[in-house]
Amino acid sequence: MKGALVFITVFVVFLIATLGYPDLPPAKAVYGLLGVPETDYPVLGIGATLLTESIINGAIYGVIAWAIFTFGTRAMSGK
Fold this sequence. Notes:
Elements: H1 2-20, H2 27-34, E1 42-43, E2 46-47, H3 48-77
Antiparallel strand pairs: 1-2
Helix pairs in contact: 1-3, 2-3
């Protein structure tokens, strides 16, 4: 359960950070690999491409933080 809280927290932080600083890697590279055309169509007042890149960054960094937390906790507990 704590791992889910870590993931959600990091996801939201990086989602907001990417909205403020769109050049935060690796979202642009992943978005380019998907082959989806860029668009400025607004979704909730935010460009669709920027929103998608923000979600990608949040998910990537959230998974990394979750993995570090989970394996770090297991290593500390000796399991």
